[in-house]
Amino acid sequence: MAACDNSAPQFRIVQIVADMSHAPFQIDFQSASLDELVNDNHVLAAISFSDSSRILDKQKPVFSVNLTNLESVEDASLVEVWRSREPVQTHASGDLLLSCNSDILFGFIQLKEADFENLVDATEAAYQQILGYLEQSDYQYLLRIWNYFSSINDEVGGLERYRQFCLGRQRALDQFGNFPYAPPAATAIGAANGDLQVYFIAARDAGVQLENPRQVSAFLYPRKYGEVSPAFSRATYKQWGKLGAQSAPSKEHLYISGTASIVGHESQHPGQTREQLQETLKNVEALIQHAHETLDLSISQLQDVSHLKVYLRDASFLPTAKQVVEERLGVNRDARSPTVLYLQGDVCRADLLVEIEAACL
Fold first, then answer.
1. pTM of the model
2. How far is 52 from 47, CA to CA, in rounded Å?
3. Does any domain span residue 63?
4. In terms of CB atoms within 10 Å, which end of the chain has fewer, N or C?
5. Which residue range(s) make up the domain with 30?
6. What is the DSSP letter of 86?
7. Which is the catalytic residue, given 113, 124, 285, 355?
8. What is the tens place of the pLDDT at every residue in 84-135?
9. Which phi-psi region, left, alpha or beta, contains residue 194 (left: φ > 0; alpha: ψ -120 to 50)?
């Protein structure tokens, strides 16, 4: 029996699917209302992208992120649905909203910055709750994490807010002994306004963290990028199911962090949207190819991804972004074409105009 929280035995999985070889969840983008999904016991999480941040349930991670969907401004009903292959159990712990099945935990926290002195303290508090909970749970290994907060490039009190975020995260990591393995894949994007929102997935055993051969690892950045380095890996590889069991083939996932036009540790092509997009896609594909070569990952090229999220600093970049991405993917809009979501959000460096994350599921 699996539980989201060891200290709360009443929250337990009541049905376990016999075939454990497939991935414990899938991600779909569908036109729906968040309200319709709250009571679906096969939904791990549901996320909409709109002009406000809100939480629809006091226990389950069903919420909206304050990022505009640039292709559906008039239709705020597009929802990212994390669907479990078995019934889920939900649980609240402090400010955390949690949902789990027997293999994976999805967690979400939203904190009001106004309740803290600064973003450093808010971030530290959020990560303290996350890391403290995981330390006591059956799901101790972070695979992927997303971070959204406003005014990411603004300087407050002599320190850029992204650097404040990194400092607060590191203070929490220092308290919990840092990661017992390489840090998880991650995204940090500036929303238009609203609260600090962090959501994540964690598992019972670790994935494999990957770095990009074209880039310096973010956690090894030189000090010019901040007092502490960003604590994330370029990607996490996770194999679900047992390898080698004839009746139970394993399922591979690759979760690719937010990726930008950076080679080594230097930003490339300042002020040039098209060139930054092309460089970013080169980085994403280099990472996929690296995973293919080192881990024998079945996919080997950009076209094999399940979906991409393209974050654009300015909505006016959308036509260029769509042209570059579709040309690079060779999109024919057949059943195998990746889902691409274009969102307006600020990137962690002021000289970067675009960031792309991907998943291979």
1. 0.92
2. 12
3. yes
4. N
5. 25-360
6. S
7. 355
8. 999 999 999 999 999 999 999 999 999 999 999 999 999 999 999 999 999 9
9. left
